[in-house]
Amino acid sequence: MNLLERMTTALKDEIRAAVVRTGFVQSADIPDFVLEVPREKEHGDWATNIAMKLTKIARRNPREIANSIVAEINQEKAAILDIEIAGPGFINFFMDRSFLRGIIEEVKQAKETYGRTDYGQGEKINVEFCSANPTGHLHLGHARGSAVGSSLCNVLDRAGFDVTAEYYINDAGNQMHMMALSIEARYLEVLGKAYTFPEDGYRGREIIDMAKALSEKEGDRLLALPAEERIAYFRAYGKQRLLDKIEADLKSYGVEFAVWFSESSLYESGAIEQTLTELTEKGFTYEKDGALWLKSTAFGDDKDRVLVKQDGSYTYLTPDIAYHRNKFHRGFNRAINIWGADHHGYIARMKAALTALGYAENQLEVIITQMVKLYQGGELVKMSKRTGKAITLVELLEEVGTDAARYFFTMRSADSHLDFDMDLAVSKSNDNPVYYVQYAHARVHSVFKMAEEKGIKPSFEKEVLARLKEEQEYDLLQKLAEFPHEINEAANQLAPYRIIRYLSELAAQFHSYYNAHRVVTDDKLLAAARLALLTSVAQVIRNGLHIVGVQAPEQM
């Protein structure tokens, strides 16, 4: 429990004790009540609605109840300076904020672990994201989903969950066969042989490059292989080359996966047949028109879904059900998927299938990432200038860098459309949100350098820190103290954008404080105290930026 939690717990305990002392209710019968930070600062540091909650029990109006509670509160015990009753009966508390200085020592001791909590209690969560078909390059949708997914994993980890980042390799469908046929056609083309390019084949540069590499390595040896064996070779070669490229591109983006799960393994292990058997034994399948159907309407889907087609082949849904069943069999309590906007209609049928298998509906949570529009020079950018194709992740990183890309893709809720201004992302101005936060971190380090030149070092002695009395100093300390709670809320809401919002607010408070108060002053003890405060500010900014995969530079 961090400092802020201890103080709010102490205040809540004193409120409960005061309620009991009024005689309105016994301790066990006190209803749940809210203790929150008011929106307006003039309304105090905390406010509670306990008086309104007690009206039915006490059979009095809330202001009368509030007056009785306030009269029984031990202000000294709960570090309260003043109390006021507002509106219909809200009780506002004005605290002795000097306790907030203790957060400096907490941050100093915890360093990069400051903000970690045990909120998740070690619950095992699987987060699957990106999962692009290994048939080409990663594009903007993958870029956004990867930034959100990676940041979410970091949030969950710091909130005390046992989280696994997973990439699902779609390597068993027709798209892989089409990729193999495309490589074969390009291979024949490079060798000067007659070829027919498949109508739905992949025409990207990567397919041509692989064919050229194969011709240089193998010559025309592959032509002597039986057709089936040759296609299998192209398939395995293409899959591995493209997966290696995807993994390398994601690593340069700060995204790594603990598990790369192959769809093919579901076929090889018999997991799909086992899943179908289990659904059938539970009575949730039926045969119609030569196909096997899932009774998904029984679980909220808008229509029943085909699992096995008339020709005996599986629909896309069937191995996906087996895959999610596999996640829970591996011991995960929750599965979180990050899908593109085109998968929105897929959620109901997947939840229906899992409910039919006996899992709770909330064990699968799906985050939908909406579309991204790129702008440069005020114009919408649709195609790469280099290739005339869709913009790839690598091309975007070449233009704006990893920090800006990760920050911009994560700073909005994933389910909102995003206009990505490439000019803004590379600008060195306070209008650039990532620059604004990074500059706050660099600015702190410039102050450290200035202080070092004057022979002043931060001091963490309580007597020295007692010199921190300015309202803006208390506001900064309060913000630093809120960081663990913000991580918990981001984890609870599956909303990593909350971390960026927090960082923006912290940076704004720091810049405002710095502009209003000299840190390196002639009063060396005051300067030492303010340097200690800035040490904490820098640490928390750094910790927050690392959660969203962004660097914290010491100079800009």
UniProtKB/TrEMBL annotation:
Assigned keywords, A-Z: Aminoacyl-tRNA synthetase, ATP-binding, Cytoplasm, Ligase, Nucleotide-binding, Protein biosynthesis
Motif, 'HIGH' region: chain positions: 132-142
The keyword ATP-binding is assigned to this record: yes
Catalytic activity reported: tRNA(Arg) + L-arginine + ATP = L-arginyl-tRNA(Arg) + AMP + diphosphate
Location relative to the cell: Cytoplasm
Keyword Manganese included in the entry's annotation: no
Alphabetical list of Pfam families matching this protein: Arg_tRNA_synt_N, DALR_1, tRNA-synt_1d
EC nos: 6.1.1.19
UniProt-recorded Gene Ontology molecular function terms: arginine-tRNA ligase activity; ATP binding
Top-level enzyme category: ligase
Coiled coil: none
Gene Ontology CC: one annotated term: cytoplasm
InterPro entries to which the protein is assigned, alphabetical: aa-tRNA-synth_I_CS, Arg-tRNA-ligase, Arg-tRNA-synth_N, Arg-tRNA-synth_N_sf, ArgRS_core, DALR_anticod-bd, Rossmann-like_a/b/a_fold, tRNAsynth_Ia_anticodon-bd
Residue span(s) of domain DALR anticodon binding: 437-556
GO biological process assignments: arginyl-tRNA aminoacylation
Main location per the UniProt record: cytoplasm
Domain Arginyl tRNA synthetase N-terminal: 5-95
Subunit structure: Monomer.
HAMAP family linked to this entry: Arg_tRNA_synth (MF_00123)
Family statement drawn from the similarity comment of this UniProt entry: Belongs to the class-I aminoacyl-tRNA synthetase family.
Annotated PANTHER family: ARGININE--TRNA LIGASE, CYTOPLASMIC, ARGINYL-TRNA SYNTHETASE
Protein name stated in the entry: Arginine--tRNA ligase
Organism: Polycladospora coralii
